[in-house]
Design goal:
With about 350 residues, the chain is mostly helical. The protein is built from 18 helices and two strands. It has one domain: 3'5'-cyclic nucleotide phosphodiesterase, catalytic domain (Catalytic domain of cyclic nucleotide phosphodiesterase 4b2b, Orthogonal Bundle).
Length: about 350
């Protein structure tokens, strides 16, 4: 756990430890809470009445979240813990300390924990193509993301022992202002989890770049994120960045995630072939095994690098992510130039 909350944390190795007891998200959150005392800060701000009861119900909730993650190659509890702890990495920097309250910090960590709960190992396109029960329920709109956040609230409502949300003050008052913290938390969790839909990536990068540009132009309205919409947008975008952060981790860790992600994608492609469906992008096992380096280079160039370059402009302390990304890109370029066969690509792991 010494590396938890850094880019050097190996969540896959961590989750496999017997002492973690198949509760990587719960253990990760407890570690963060002991380190930064978020619940204590919320109590000090008079947002809850009983910190002991709040901690108890929140921990019960997170244990249930762990149990509701499926044992997929990639979208499993280890990925949930990894996303939570990568998001915590962002929260350590001064920009986030200035913009996010303790309640926002808690919201972000919970959003990281729940963002893929119940994931079935098949992506949104699979569900819309097959008109699955989930696609019908959510009208083809952010199908999985809607399911993840809905299931999380269902877990809360299913047992009072897990319902930490109701312990937030609905009549909060501070500096002459009043607010319903339960409604604020619910809206924030929904917004943040829905922001992890990959279909929103391009728009997110564009809007974040606009915020950065206005900040650089000296517009004081963007020196501090005061508007609720903008604050939740930035939190959601950083959660999305945490969700897809595999390629900004050290190469050995990044390769582990790449390997299990390809396994899950190709399993989907195999099922699509059996169903007589067109194989989704990135899910063709036969073609994909021949072009892993090319695919990874393209993913870095067109998806990850534009997002993280913009983030580094906003939060310069995150330069480490770009440095790792550069190393990983060089690694894949070398594999491509050497025409490495698939069975040799991941030997360094």
């Amino acid at each position: 756990m010494e590396k938890a909350g850094t880019l050097n944390f190996d969540a896959l190795a961590f989750a496999s430890l017997p002492v973690v007891a198949n509760l990587p998200i719960f253990v990760s959150f407890v570690w963060v809470e002991q380190k930064v005392h978020i619940v204590t800060d919320i109590l000090a701000d008079n947002m809850i009445e009983d910190s002991a009861n709040f901690r108890r119900t929140l921990k019960r909730f997170l244990e249930s979240i762990d149990r509701n993650y499926n044992n997929n190659p990639y979208h499993n509890g280890a990925h949930g813990a990894d996303t939570l702890l990568t998001f915590e990495w962002f929260f350590q920097f001064e920009f986030m300390k200035e913009q996010a309250s303790p309640l926002d910090h808690l919201m972000g960590l919970i959003a990281g924990a729940i963002h893929d709960v119940g994931h079935p190992g098949r992506n949104n396109l699979f569900h819309t193509k097959t008109m699955s029960e989930l696609a019908i329920r959510y009208n083809d709109k952010s199908v999985l993301e809607n399911m993840h956040v809905a299931r999380s609230f269902e877990i809360m409502q299913a047992s009072t022992d897990s319902n930490w949300l109701v312990q937030l003050r609905s009549d909060f008052q501070s500096d002459g202002q009043t607010g319903n913290l339960q409604q604020y938390m619910r809206r924030g969790l929904i917004d943040l989890v829905l922001a992890t839909d990959p279909a929103k990536h391009g728009k997110q990068v564009k809007e974040l770049a606009q915020i950065v540009a206005e900040d650089e132009e000296g517009d004081e309205s963007h020196k501090k994120v005061q508007a609720l919409e903008e604050k939740l947008f930035i939190l959601g975008t950083l959660l999305h960045a945490s969700d897809i952060s595999n390629t900004v981790k050290p190469t050995a860790i990044s390769l582990k995630w790449t390997n299990v992600l390809l396994t899950e994608f190709w399993s989907q492609g195999d099922e699509e072939i059996l169903l007589g469906q067109p194989v989704s992008p990135l899910c063709d096992r036969e073609a994909g095994m021949l072009e892993v380096p090319k695919g990874q280079i393209g993913f870095i160039n067109f998806v990850i690098e534009p997002l993280y370059r913009t983030i580094v402009t906003l939060i310069p302390e995150t330069q480490e992510a770009l440095d790792n990304l550069t190393k990983n890109k060089k690694f894949w370029q070398q594999q491509q130039s050497e025409h490495k066969p698939f069975d040799q690509l991941f030997l360094t792991t």
